[in-house]
Design brief:
495 residues, alpha/beta, seven-stranded parallel beta sheet, two-stranded parallel ribbon, binds NADP nicotinamide-adenine-dinucleotide phosphate, NADP, lipid metabolism
Length: 495
């Protein structure tokens, strides 16, 4: 199939297909695109965490099809939009942490006969998630999806969304290579996924036996995740558990066709259907929001380093092309949907375009609506430099406040505790995000480039209004940040 790809073949591929999508409340762009370009898709089954199908339906209406990104589709279908959605979209209450995705038997029987394609986008993406929660979604979830896929009678494709950062903090060129079970990023260690599960169960038992408070339990489980991730060389619980999910999928898949897509940092839509649209605050967006509100004056980042970002519509285009390209192949393919190798964007571009954007569109005071004076941000290129600044500027005054508080018999206790908590939070966030702000790796995307080459000049059908481009080389980053992404962040994320 790969040699014959073009936009029409990709669109045609989805005709009459039944697709199960998990994590759709986080991946609206995919749901929208399939429904827009291929109205003859048979059914999109959206697996949603909800008490029952009726609540799942309500979640889909408010969190998926009711969102602004569906405007173009609404216009296209006019007052038939609701009927179209009713006909094509089937919300299912379920959860990938359970075997059979938590689906009742009757429904399972129907789905196993019906499903052609599975897209597993569901994940817990919090870097500092409880280990048990992240393990359930990102490791057991991948396993359950794989087991479900193997039972589907006519499955043609299982596409699993992972992340390029399963590579941890490695430097240099990072290949699109599968993980072997047990592989780690730290020399001299071996990972046993079964033992990790037992460790989680044992820790849960101890926590219960010792009657930990809810807060203490949460902290224990979160710290356990971070500790285990770092033990094996990953910087946080999220990417560690995503890597284990990939390992299980590769190991258990048998001969089902699997595509693993590893995007880097997904940013706002570049082209269609709504440039600038996004949801959820990403690493780099906290910088823009901090600047927009003039609430952040320092930032830990080396401006000369490359931030690897890729617009959400390009990720979805790559996913759809890869599904069509490898349908029914009894193999596993891995794709980095990234930009650092072919069109690197240094953090300096974002800092400059951000400053220029806010000079031209000054942030306004919440109190009186007046434009606020713009102060430039201060950037720290190393964690020790950042820590030193924080110690002098905040830790030292805090220490003085602590002593004063003791001398005045606790008169400033509340203030001290509050400031101390804030300080610890900032340091913790800096610690968690440092591996990304100071990332020195570069994602090889040879596999993805091969798909791009096949699709070159054949990725669009403008007369029908669709585009399957995912070539990050075509992006002028300064223009994208200035004209699309930063206004998008201001519009959709800053309240
Ligand atoms: N955002 C990025 O920059 C980025 C970059 C690289 C890769 N990725 C990958 O892209 C995917 C989507 O990421 P995102 O940022 O869009 O995440 P997100 O906004 O946090 O969405 C995650 C989705 O997964 C669902 N989910 C979580 N646990 C589940 C479970 N146990 N069963 C069923 N559904 C569950 C969530 O449902 P609820 O609505 O019920 O919580 C939500 O729909 C993830 O696989 C992530 O690893 C994202």
């Amino acid at each position: 199939m790969i040699g014959q790809l073009d936009a029409d073949v990709v669109v045609g591929y989805f005709t009459g297909k039944s697709i199960l999508i998990t994590g759709s409340t986080g991946f609206l762009v995919l749901v929208e695109k399939i429904l827009r370009v291929q109205p003859d898709v048979k059914k999109l089954y959206l697996l949603i965490r909800a008490a029952d199908d009726q609540s799942a339906k309500q979640r889909v209406e408010t969190e998926v099809t009711g969102r602004e990104i569906f405007q173009v589709l609404k216009q296209k279908h006019g007052n038939r939009f609701e009927d179209f959605i009713q006909e094509k979209v089937c919300p299912l209450a379920g959860d990938i942490m359970y075997e059979n995705l938590g689906l009742p038997n009757a429904k399972l029987t129907v789905l196993l006969k019906e499903i052609d394609i599975i897209v597993n986008g569901a994940a817990t993406t919090n870097f500092f998630e409880r280990y048990d929660v992240a393990f359930d979604a990102n490791v057991m979830g991948a396993k359950h999806i794989c087991q479900f896929a193997k039972r589907c009678n006519k499955l043609k494709m299982l596409l699993h969304v992972s992340t390029a950062y399963v590579a941890g903090e490695q430097e240099g060129i990072l290949p699109e290579k599968p993980f072997q079970v047990g592989e780690t990023l730290r020399e001299g260690t071996h990972l046993d996924i079964g033992s990790e599960l037992n460790l989680i169960k044992d820790t849960r038992r101890q926590v219960k036996a010792n009657r930990f408070s809810e807060t203490a339990e949460k902290r224990t489980m979160k710290e356990l995740g971070l500790k285990r991730a770092r033990e094996f060389g990953w910087p946080n619980t999220y990417v560690f558990t995503k890597a284990m999910g990939e390992m299980l999928l590769g190991h258990l898949r048998g001969d089902i066709p699997v595509v693993i897509i590893r995007p880097s940092i997904i940013t706002s839509i570049l082209n269609e259907p709504l440039p600038g649209w996004m949801e959820g605050i990403r690493t780099i967006d906290s910088f823009i929001i901090g600047y927009a509100k003039q609430a952040l004056s320092i930032f830990l980042v080396d401006l000369d380093l490359i931030m690897d970002v890729v617009p959400g519509d390009m990720v979805v285009n790559a996913m759809m092309v890869a599904m069509a390209a490898h349908s029914e192949e009894q193999a596993q393919h891995i794709y980095h949907v990234t930009s650092s190798l072919r069109n690197p964007a240094p953090y300096a571009v974002l800092a400059e375009s951000g400053h220029r954007y806010f000079l031209h569109n000054p942030p306004r005071s919440r109190k009186n609506g007046e434009p606020m004076p713009l102060s430039r941000m201060r950037f720290f290129r190393t964690l020790p430099g950042f820590r030193m600044y924080m110690a002098v500027k905040f830790r030292l005054p805090l220490e003085l406040l602590r002593l004063l508080n003791i001398a005045l018999c606790g008169a400033f206790s509340r203030r001290y505790n509050e400031l101390s908590r804030k300080y610890r939070y900032v340091m913790h966030i800096a610690d968690l995000y440092a591996p990304y702000a100071l990332f020195k790796g570069c994602f090889d995307d040879t596999n993805t480039e091969r798909l791009r080459v096949v699709m070159a000049n054949k990725q669009q059908d403008k007369s029908r209004g669709y585009d399957f481009g995912f070539d990050t080389k075509t992006i002028d980053w300064d223009d994208y940040f200035y004209r699309v992404h930063i206004p998008g962040v201001v519009n959709y994320l800053c309240d």
